[in-house]
Amino acid sequence: MDEIKVANLGQAASAACSMATNFLAPVKTERQIYENSMLEDDPNANSVVSTSQEDRTVPRWGPNHKGAQELANLYSTGKRTQECICVGICITLIIVNSIFILVRLRLENLSSIAIAAFCGIVTADFGSGLVHWAADTWGSVELPILGKNFLRPFREHHIDPTSITRHDFIETNGDNFMVTIPFLYKLTWDFLTLPESEIQQKFVWTCYWFLLAIFVAMTNQIHKWSHTYFGLPSWVIWLQEHRVILPRKHHRVHHVAPHETYFCITTGWLNWPLEQLRFWYILEIIIEKATGCKPRADDLKWAQKRS
Description:
It is found in: Membrane. The chain has helices spanning about 1-25, 30-35, 55, 65-70, 75-100, 110-135, 145-160, 170-195, 195-200, 205-225, 235-240, 250, 270-275, 280-290, 295-305. The protein is mostly helical. The radius of gyration is 23 Å and the shape is globular.
């Protein structure tokens, strides 16, 4: 009887291990990463493994890729102006709201604000994934206004991932700062117009929105750091290694062609659970059936402009 129980326990343990192995299997293998993504810690290399004769003669990724060069040249003076204005307005609103919040900060609120901060960073991570997925997967650079100004950087980034490391603060963060302006303006308006009792009543909620705006504003800077393999400050590396912000190795999974997973780029905390739920895949199936549009068709078109 005992032998039967031991055998059953052994079978159960084996089945559990098998399930865990399948469930926790890496999204991309090391070989997939090496063969289908640019080695960013060695920017002169295209791939560890050359999978075709074309790979040996024509850049598959990087600044010498013809598609990447064409996309980089679409960055306009008008776009630069928009980014400068947005960065200036956003920083001003952040400073103003910081002052309003700091003068009202109370010790008894700190635990609630810590929870608000956690919720804010998780929301920002999901929001970054949703926007990143939408921009990577749908639309075209040829779209009026939206294409060249907002989708172009996503196309360039996939075929020249290190281009973001050559962008200055304005180009890196202009669009994310722009997104936060309406929220920060609303907070400023509330601080200036609402009675103090109402401000205190919704103070934690205000902190949530403010911290969410900060995390959203910083998301592309965090993203840039995840592509920076040389010269990062030690405190940034510490935050990456402790998974407070998006780690470099973690983000490499997204850059394995065809770039269909791990879209969250603030912390990356939600990437694994969303992948297990097949969240993005299900959304793509629904949209493709409803519209007939193929996911990442424009992304593939630019990737193929190698010569």
